[in-house]
Amino acid sequence: MEFGIDEKTQTILGMIREFMAKEVYPLEPYFLGKSFREMKPKLEEARNKVRQMELWAPQLPKELGGVGIGFMGYAMACEEIGRSPLGAYIFGSQAPDAGNIEILAKYATEEQREKWMRPLIRGQIRSCFSMTEPEFAGSNPTVMATSAVKDKGDYVINGHKWFTSAADGARFAIVMANTNPENPSPYQRASMIIVPTDAPGFKLLRNISVMGHAGDDYGTHGEIMYQNCRVPQSNLLGPEGQGFVIAQERLGPGRIHHCMRYIGIAQRCFEMMCEYAAKREVTEGKTLATKQIIQGWIAECRAEIHASRLMVLHAAWKIDTQGAYAAREEISLIKFYVANTMLKVIDKAIQVHGGLGVSDDTILSFFYRMERGARIYDGADEVHKVVVAKRILRQYQAQVA
Amino acid sequence: MEFGIDEKTQTILGMIREFMAKEVYPLEPYFLGKSFREMKPKLEEARNKVRQMELWAPQLPKELGGVGIGFMGYAMACEEIGRSPLGAYIFGSQAPDAGNIEILAKYATEEQREKWMRPLIRGQIRSCFSMTEPEFAGSNPTVMATSAVKDKGDYVINGHKWFTSAADGARFAIVMANTNPENPSPYQRASMIIVPTDAPGFKLLRNISVMGHAGDDYGTHGEIMYQNCRVPQSNLLGPEGQGFVIAQERLGPGRIHHCMRYIGIAQRCFEMMCEYAAKREVTEGKTLATKQIIQGWIAECRAEIHASRLMVLHAAWKIDTQGAYAAREEISLIKFYVANTMLKVIDKAIQVHGGLGVSDDTILSFFYRMERGARIYDGADEVHKVVVAKRILRQYQAQVA
Amino acid sequence: MEFGIDEKTQTILGMIREFMAKEVYPLEPYFLGKSFREMKPKLEEARNKVRQMELWAPQLPKELGGVGIGFMGYAMACEEIGRSPLGAYIFGSQAPDAGNIEILAKYATEEQREKWMRPLIRGQIRSCFSMTEPEFAGSNPTVMATSAVKDKGDYVINGHKWFTSAADGARFAIVMANTNPENPSPYQRASMIIVPTDAPGFKLLRNISVMGHAGDDYGTHGEIMYQNCRVPQSNLLGPEGQGFVIAQERLGPGRIHHCMRYIGIAQRCFEMMCEYAAKREVTEGKTLATKQIIQGWIAECRAEIHASRLMVLHAAWKIDTQGAYAAREEISLIKFYVANTMLKVIDKAIQVHGGLGVSDDTILSFFYRMERGARIYDGADEVHKVVVAKRILRQYQAQVA
Amino acid sequence: MEFGIDEKTQTILGMIREFMAKEVYPLEPYFLGKSFREMKPKLEEARNKVRQMELWAPQLPKELGGVGIGFMGYAMACEEIGRSPLGAYIFGSQAPDAGNIEILAKYATEEQREKWMRPLIRGQIRSCFSMTEPEFAGSNPTVMATSAVKDKGDYVINGHKWFTSAADGARFAIVMANTNPENPSPYQRASMIIVPTDAPGFKLLRNISVMGHAGDDYGTHGEIMYQNCRVPQSNLLGPEGQGFVIAQERLGPGRIHHCMRYIGIAQRCFEMMCEYAAKREVTEGKTLATKQIIQGWIAECRAEIHASRLMVLHAAWKIDTQGAYAAREEISLIKFYVANTMLKVIDKAIQVHGGLGVSDDTILSFFYRMERGARIYDGADEVHKVVVAKRILRQYQAQVA
After folding, report:
1. Are the beta carbons of A60 and A126 closer than 8 angstroms?
2. Which residue among D45, D79, D94 closes a domain?
3. H/E stretch holding A156
4. Cα-flanking dihedrals φ and ψ of residue B91, to 5°?
5. Contact of A95 with A250, CB cutoff 8 Å
6. What is the pLDDT of residues A49-79, one digit of tens each?
7. Backbone phi, psi, residue A258, to 5°
8. Disulfide-capable partner of B237 in A48, B192, C199, C327 (CB 3.0 to 4.6 Å)?
9. Domain end position, chosen among A213, A241, A269
10. What pLDDT, on the 0 to 100 scale, is given for residue A285?
11. Cα(first)–Cα(last) distance of chain D, in Å?
12. C164 bridge partner residues
C-alpha cells in the first residue's frame, strides 16, 4: 500500500490550483450576477489561457487533444477544477460534454467523430444528454416512454424528457429512446441517438427553474418535447438496443469525477470556514476560531473530507486496476458518502459565516443551493444505499425484497 | 394540565386555514417568478378580502384595529399564516412591521402614533428595523458603531447597517444608534429613533443579494449608510438610552411568532412529502410511500414537529402567565430546536420529491433557500445554546467562561 | 391550553422527590454490588417507610390501596420514581406487577382477586408476564407457538417463552397462549392464563444474562419452558381468545409510565452532567463547564428532555380525555422519541464524566447498559416509526406495503 | 497511489483470520461467564498453538521473537486479531504489554531487558502502565501529582493512580512520576520508573468496577496507591525527565493498533448484523434483510468502516514513511472517527438483533459495554477534535484560545 503521488502529477495539479486561484475565482462574483451568455467572452478568454498552458481537456489522452494524465491523474485534477462552478467549463471538461465525448470516442463512426466529437473536444460546440423523464423515477432509468421508430431511413422520436442539462445552446443531444421495446430484457430496449437541436420536432419547452433560477445557455436544465422528431438512422450511436450498456460503462468513471468535484467544493468551503473563523472577531477581542463548537466542526469536516478523498481515490484505483464492475460497491458507497460530506461542510461553512453566509457576497450560498441536488441526481442517496446493501446481503444468502 | 383549544379560536384558525388554501397558495407560483412590485396589486386584492373577513392584523387587539384573539390565539394563527411566504403580508402581520407596531403602541407619542403607527397598522405604509451592522457579530447586538448626536434640535446619525429587512420601499426605519456612548452599561447606550427613508443622509446602498436574489420592495435585506442623517429629536422612540430594553421586550413574543411560522412551514412541507410519497410510483406499481426509509423520515418528522409545537405553545403560555423574563430559558430553547426541525423537514421533503424538489415547480426549494437563515438570524443556534447552557450551569455554581 | 400543575399533585411530587434523594439514592451503591436477594431486607425497610408516608402504589386509586392521584398525577410521579432503578420497586409500582394488577383489577374473578391481586398490591408476592417467544419477532406479538389445550377441567400449556422479566421468585405468571388457534383473526387466538410458578411443567430454564449479568430474583429476564404445564380452567383471566385485546388496553397507559421513567432517568443524568461539569477542573483553573462543546450538549439535552416531557404529558392527557385509541399516534411517537432522548443524555453524561463515567462509581454506567433495551423492548424504534408512518400515509390514500 | 496488499502479508492475515474463527471465537462464550483466572489454562493452550504456528507477537521483529511483518503488516493483523476480546492476549500482542515491550526495547538497559522485557515478550509475565490519576483530567497528562524523590540510591514514589489496566496479576508497572518538578517545561518533569508490584508501598486498592464488572487478573483497571514505594534508581527507564517524550513516541503507532482493533470489532459486528438480518424472519415469510431501514444502516456502516480502514492505513503509511510527527493530524483524526464508527456499528448490530442483542448470548453486548470507553480513553473525542482544529486554524494565523 502506497499513498504517494508522483511528481509529474503533482506539478500539473499545482499548475491547475494556481490557475484556479488567479484566473477563475476572480470571475465568480461577476458570474453570480450575470447571465451565462454575458459571461461567455470572459470565459472564452480564460479557456484560451488554459489552452496556451496545455491544460485543456485534462480528461482526455494526448491523442484526442487532452493533457494525458491518466485516469488517476484526472481524478485528482477534478478536485482542483471542481473548486469553482466555472472550473470545468474553463478547462474543457464540463459535464455532460466530457461524458458525451467519452461515448463518442468509443462508439462513434468516423463521420460522427468528425461532425460531433472533434468540435466538442475543441470546445466549439456544446451537447447534452437526454435521458430522464418526468413521469418515471430517475432511480430506475430503464423504464422510459420515449420511443424511436424507424421510418424511411430515419428514426422518428417521440417523448418527453426533463433535467436535460445544458440543452439550451447545445448543438446536439444524445437521446436515450426505446428502439427495441419488445426485447425481454429491459436493459436491451433503448438506444442512443444523436439528435441535432435544430432537428424538426425537437422542442426545448423551458429551462426548468431550479433553486430560484432558470438560468440560460450552459447553466440550465431543459425540459424537452420530442414530437415526431426525425433524424437519419445513421445518427444511431453504438449498437442498437445497447443504450444502457453504454450508459453504464460511463457511470463508474463519471461517479469518480463528480465525487472529486464534490471534494473540491468541500475543501474550498472548509478553507473559507477556517479563514473566516480566524479573522472574524466576536466578543472581547476573541475570534470565532476560539469557539470550541466551531473547532469541533472543523475537526469533523477535516476527517470526513479526508475519508471522502481516500475512498474516491481507492475506488478510482480499483476501477483502473480491476475494472468498473469489480468496483461497483465502492462506486455506490462514494456517491452518498461524499455528497453528504460536501453538503455538511457547506452547511457548517455558512453557519460560521452567519448572515454573510446566506448572502451572495461569498460563493457559499451558491454551493448550498446548486449542490443540494448532489444527493438526488444520478440516483438518490437512498437508492444507492439500498443497492449496496442488497448486494452485501446476498452474500449471506438473504432474500432482499 | 390541559391541552385543548377553545372553540372560538378553533373557528378563526379554521377560517385562516381555508383562506390560505383557497386564496394564498394559488398566488405562489406567480410570486416565484415575479418581482414583489409586480405582485402588489394581487396582494392588495387578497389583503382586501382579509379585511372584509375581519381577519386583518390578528396580532393586534380590537382597539388597535386587529382581530383580538389574544397572545395564545395569535401564536396558533401564526402557524397557519406562516405556511406560505405570502401569508403574513396578506394578513397584515408581516415582520418587521408587526414588531414595530408593537413598540410604537407602547412607546410612541400621540404624534408618532398618528404619523407612523396608524398608517402602518392599516397597511398603507411599510417600515423597517435597522440594527445589525456588518462589522459586528449579530450575536452581541449591544456592540455597534452607529451614533446619534444631538445638534440644534436634531439627531445627526452616522453609521453603517445591513440586513435591514424590507428597507426598500419602507416609509421609515426604526434605527438603533448610540446616544449615550459613555454609559457604563452597554445595555443603556443606544436609543431607538424614527428615521423617514427620505431623510437627508439616509442611503440605501443596495438590496443584499441573498441565496441568489437581491429581491425588491418588501422582499429585501437592505444595506444602508447613514451619513450625517438628520431627524428632529422628537423622533426619539421611547426613553433615551433604552433602545435595548425596548428591543428585548419585543424579543420573547417575537420569537414565539417566528417559531410558529417555522412550524407552519414544516407542517406544510410534511404534508407535501406525504402527499407526493402517496402518489409517486417508483417500481413495479409501488409508490414511494411503501419505502421504509421514507416511512422512517415521516415518523421522525411527525415527532419533531409535534415536539416543536408543544414547546412553542408552552413557552407562549409561560410568557402569557409569568412574563417573558420567567420564560427566557424556554424562549432560547425553541429558537434552535424549532429552526432545526423546520430545516430537517424541508430537507426530507425535497429528498422525497427528487429532482422536482430542487426545481421551482414546488415551493420547497424556496423554503430550502430562504429559511436557511433561520439558524442564523436573531442569534445563531450556537449562541442560543451557549446562553441557555450557561444559565443552567450557573445554578450549579459553575464558572462558565 | 394550560400547562400548570395543581398544588396537591405538586405536594405529592415534592414528597416523592425528597424521599428518592434521601432514602433511595443512598441504597444504589450497595445495590450495584449485591444480588437482589441480599438487598431485599433493605428494600423492605424502604417500602415500609413509603407505606407509612401513604405513598404506596401511586398508580392505584385509594379503593384498591393506592395513593389516588389519578392518571396524570401518576404519570408525573413516574418521572420522580423512575430516577433510580430501585424507585418503582420501593414504591410498589414496579413492572410487570403494576400492569398485572391493572389487568386483574379489570378482569379477575373475585376468587382470582383474593388469591393473586390483593397480595400483589400489598407487595407480598410478585408476578411476571410471559408473552415473548425466542422463535418469533417481538414486533409481531400475535404470532406465537405456545398453546393451551383444554383437558379434563384443566388447561395444558406447551411453549417456550423468554424475556419473561422478574420470573425468578415470582409466585405466578400471566401466560399468553393460543386457546383458539383456528380463529380467523390472529388477534382472537390467544388467552391470558394465570400459571403459578410451582405448577407442574413450569420450568425456569435460566435467567438470561443481559448486558453482562444474569441477575437474580426481581432483577431478571427468564427463559421458561412450559411442558404439559397444567392449571385449572378457572385460571383463565378475562374472556377466552381476548388475550390481545386485554394486552392492548394496557399498552397505551403503560407506555406513558415507561416514558416518564425514561424522562426521570434522563433528567437525573442531565443533572449529574451539569454538576460534574461545574466542579471538574481540566486545565488552567478551568472547569468542564467552560467548554463550549459541553455547553452545546447541555442545551440540546435540555431541549430534548423538555420536548419529551411535553409530548408524554400531552399523550397522557389525550388518553385521559379521549381514550387510548384516539391517542395511538402520540403513543407511538413517544416510544421512540423519548427512549432515544434518554439514551442520548446518558451517553453525553458519560462522556462528560470521562473514565469515571464508564466506571461503576456512578449510576451512569448502569443506565447505559440496562436502558439500551428501551429502543428494543415493547416494539423496536423502527417498528413504531413504520406503524405511525403507515397510519399517516393512509390518510393520503397511500398503499403502504 | 496503490492500494494493493502484498501476497506474503495476505497469507499471514489469512492464517490469523482462520485461527480466530476456529480457535478463538469458540472460547468466547466460556470467557463471558468465567473469571479470567479460570480461563487461563485454555488461553495458554491457544497461545501455544499460536507459538507453534509462528504467529506469536506479530508486533515484533524476528530478532525480538516476533513474526516480522513490519509496521503496515502488523497494522492489518491488528484488525484480524482485534475481532475478539481474547485475540491480542492469545497472540501475545495485548496492551499494555506490547507498548511496554516497545519502550523497553528502545530504552531498557541490558539488565532491564533481561529481567523484564524478555519474559514479557515470551508471555511469561505481565506488566502495566501507571499514568492516569483520578484528581487530574486525562486530557492533560502532563499534570500529575505523583512524585519520585531520590533517597539513598532509591526512588521513593508517592502518588495515586487509577485506570492502570491489567495491574492485577502484573509482575511490574511502568510508573510515570515527577522526578524534576522544578523543570520549566511541563513536558520535562516526569520520568518512567519500573516498579515491581511486590515493591514495598505498592498497593493495589481495588480493581475498579467498569460497566458492571470489576474483573480479575488481566481484565481489570486498577486503582493504586504508591505510599513511600521504594525501588532502586537503576529502575529508571530511559533518561530522567523524559517520561513524556518516550510516552509520546509510543502514542502514534499505538493509536494505529487501537484503531485497527476497533475496525476489527466493527467489521465483525457488521458481519453478524448481515448474517442475522439474512436469517431472521419477521413477518409473512420476510426476513429482516428485506427491511429498507436496515438496508440503509448496512450501507452506511459499510461506508464508514471502509472510510475508517483507509484512514488508518493511510496514517500508518504516513508514520512509516514520514514519521509520527508528520502524521499527527491524521493520528488525531482517526482516534475519534474510528471509535465513533465502531460504536455506531455495534449499536446498529444490537438493534438488528433485538432482545438477543442486549443478551449475552452473542458477543455484541460485551462490545457495547466494554468499548464505550474508546471515545474516552487515551484522550476523549472532544480533546482530539480541539487539538486537530487548533493546529489547522493556526495555519490561518488564528488565535485559538
Report:
1. no
2. D94
3. strand A154-165
4. -90, 5
5. no
6. 999 999 999 999 999 999 999 999 999 999 9
7. -60, -45
8. B192
9. A241
10. 81
11. 38
12. C222
Within 13 A of A150's CA, how many CA atoms are on the CB side? 10
Predicted complex ipTM: 0.96
d(CA B195, CA A360): 28
Contact partners for chain A, using 3 or more CB pairs closer than 8 A, are B, C, D
Closest alpha carbon to B98 in B125, B80, B120, B77 = B120
At A345, list the grid cell: 461542510
Q: Are D340 and D380 in contact (CB under 8 A)?
A: no
- Confidence (pLDDT) at B66: 97
Nearest to A349 by CA among A257, A280, A252, A261: A280
Nearest-CA distance from A75 to chain C in Å? 37
pLDDT at B226 over 80: yes
Q: pLDDT per residue over A92-143, tens digit each?
A: 999 999 999 999 999 999 999 999 999 999 999 999 999 999 988 777 778 8
Residues B257 and B228 occupy one common structural domain = no
The backbone torsions φ and ψ at residue C162, rounded to the nearest 5 degrees and listed phi first, read: -145, 175
Residue B117 lies in a domain: no
Q: What is the mean pLDDT of residues D16-23?
A: 97
**D303 contacts D266 by C-beta, under 8 angstroms:** no
Taking CA–CA distances from B310, the nearest residue in chain C reads C310
Three-state DSSP class for D185?
Answer: coil
Q: Domain containing A183 — which CATH number?
A: 2.40.110.10
The whole-angstrom distance between C295's CA and the closest CA on chain A is 9
Q: Which of residues 277-336 of C touch B (CB under 8 A)?
A: 277-279, 286-287, 289-290, 292, 294-296, 298-300, 302-303, 306-308, 310-311, 313-314, 317-318, 321, 329-330, 332-333, 336
Contact C360 D137 (CB under 8 A): no
Residues D167-191, mean pLDDT to the nearest whole number: 96
The closest alpha carbon to C22, from C87, C78, C71, C77, belongs to: C87
Whether A296 and C293 lie within 8 Å, measured CB to CB: yes
**Is C269 found in the same domain as C232?**
no
**CA nearest to D308, candidates D334, D331, D332, D330:** D334
- B20 and B155 part of one domain: no
Given CA atoms C159, C162, C165, C170 in this order, what sign does their dihedral have? positive
Report which secondary-structure segment, H or E, holds C327. Answer: none
C247 sits in which H/E element: helix C243-279
Which residues of chain D are within 8 Å of residue A349 when distances are taken between CB atoms? none
Could you list the residue range(s) of the whole structural domain that residue B28 is in?
7-94
User: B68-109, pLDDT tens digit by residue?
Assistant: 999 999 999 999 999 999 999 999 999 999 999 999 999 999
Cα–Cα distance between A256 and A312 in angstroms, integer?
Answer: 6
C296 contacts in chain A (CB < 8 Å):
293
